[in-house]
Amino acid sequence: MARLPVYLQLLSEQFEAGITNISSEELATLGGVNAAKVRKDLSYLGSYGTRGVGYDVEFLVFQIKRELGLTHEWHVVIVGAGNLGQALSGYGGFGERGFPVGGIVDVAEDKIGSVIGGVRVRHIDELAQIVQSRDIAIGVIATPGPAAQDAADALVAAGVTSVLNFAPAIVNTPHGISVRKVDLAVELQILSYHEQRRANARQATKLQAVPGPRGRGASA
Amino acid sequence: MARLPVYLQLLSEQFEAGITNISSEELATLGGVNAAKVRKDLSYLGSYGTRGVGYDVEFLVFQIKRELGLTHEWHVVIVGAGNLGQALSGYGGFGERGFPVGGIVDVAEDKIGSVIGGVRVRHIDELAQIVQSRDIAIGVIATPGPAAQDAADALVAAGVTSVLNFAPAIVNTPHGISVRKVDLAVELQILSYHEQRRANARQATKLQAVPGPRGRGASA
DNA sequence: CCCTGTGAACCCATTCACAGCT
DNA sequence: AGCTGTGAATGGGTTCACAGGG
Fold first, then answer.
1. Three-state SS at A55
2. Relative to the CA of B173, which of A154, B81, B157, B204 has its CA 20 to 30 Å away?
3. Is B37 an 8 Å CB contact of chain A?
4. Domain range summary for chain B, segments of one domain joined by +
5. pLDDT at residue B210, rounded to an integer
6. Does the distance separating the beta carbons of A183 and B5 come in below 8 Å?
7. CATH number for domain A76-182, candidates 3.40.50.720, 3.40.50.920, 2.60.120.10, 3.30.565.10
8. Which residues of chain A fall below pLDDT 70?
């Protein structure tokens, strides 16, 4: 379930704050969702709650981590050492959350050898060797859109079975490979859409308040 | 609709490639979705298709851009000039896709004044002035988790009405503010979950093939 | 004849509501 | 009494299937 990571984060925060027990109601409020949904989601892990009391925060954190496979670190390999690849590698957030960068590769000779976030950029031909030596299962595509499919193919050929795609392109992979896509521009476009609607609404209100003498049906 | 940006991207690529007309079937294949869904989504824009023929690619691109409010650029302001903020600012992708970085702010004195991606880091107290001078509607939160709520409050106070939150925290905003959350760690955790399931499946297969004599119910 | 546009059927996630344990 | 766990009801999004226009 895609909400488990969210619960994990909330529960971890509560645990840090010294909370040892939590009800579905409280957790739902923190996450801005329905309490019944929380209970359904958590019941999927097993019956780990205590009726009349709630859930043990620490135990729940452990169970979610186990379910998500977060009992050990997962090294990732980044394909593409351009702006985005450098950004992701330099951003320490991956390692902090249990996903250290185990390698970065690129096709461009001039990028190879430079060190970003403590990791040296290597040639994409070395991808299989990097993946196998560090037992890497997750690859990150940080190439321009047109190169994304090649990057995905290279990752799959190297033995990676999960792909996080930041490139603005849809990649095709064989069955059995997990792909997730994060497109920063798409997120902004969705916000732009909301802004656009707000702007239209303001305009409509204005037109309604002061109907122009030559209004061509704009108020309809 | 959250799929319009995807169609826009696909259609733009097709247009670049010289395709002038496209059927819902073709577009559906490119996007990996159902053709009926494509038609429903596009019909929401109006009846812009031609029966028996398909859709005019260029016209459709224009209509989607209009609907998404992409007829002009939207400047964004980034809060947080740490690793992630620098990464996002240095990454040229925002500007390329119509969302140039109009400012970066931080609370830390030592970050202020440095230039990232051509933009100078300024103090968060100047946020309102930056937002108003450039008429910025979209703010990006790139702070550590605990500072995210403060960043959101500052953005809203400054007049921003849409927020893209990269911090690992849920932020509360007044009604009427659009918020989207992108958590890179969550994406990786979801992939980790898939990897975990694959690992479990492999283990189960192995146990089934060669049942251990002292198996403690693992094969159930 | 081909493909769009759309009512109707379907499906699955969400929510409700309450039985049951502590 | 309080809160979990879950069958039943709800609702929204997806898919089907076909009428209708080019």
1. strand
2. B81
3. no
4. 4-68, 76-182
5. 64
6. yes
7. 3.40.50.720
8. 210-220
Query: Closest to B164 (Cβ–Cβ): which among A4, A180, A187?
Result: A187
**pLDDT by residue (tens digit) across B113-126?**
999 989 999 999 99
Cα(A130)–Cα(A76) distance, integer angstroms:
10
* Nucleotide closest in space to A21 (CA vs C1'): D3
The Cα B17–Cα B176 span in angstroms is 40
How far apart CA B31 and CA B45 sit, in angstroms, is 18
Contact A163, A152 (CB under 8 A): yes
For residue A46, give how far its alpha carbon lies from the nearest alpha carbon of chain B (Å): 15
Chain position carrying tokens 């392109």: A169
The structural architecture, per CATH, of the domain A4-68 is: Orthogonal Bundle (1.10)
The set of strand C positions with any atom below 7 Å of a protein CB reads 1-7, 14-17, 20-22
Residues near strand C (C-beta below 7 A) are A 33-34, 36-37, 39-40, 50-53; B 22-25, 35-36, 39-40, 42-43, 47-55
Q: Note whether A19 contacts B: Cβ–Cβ < 8 A.
A: no
Q: Which amino acid is at A5?
A: P
Dump pLDDT digits (tens) for A160-203. 999 999 999 889 999 999 999 999 999 999 999 999 988 888 88
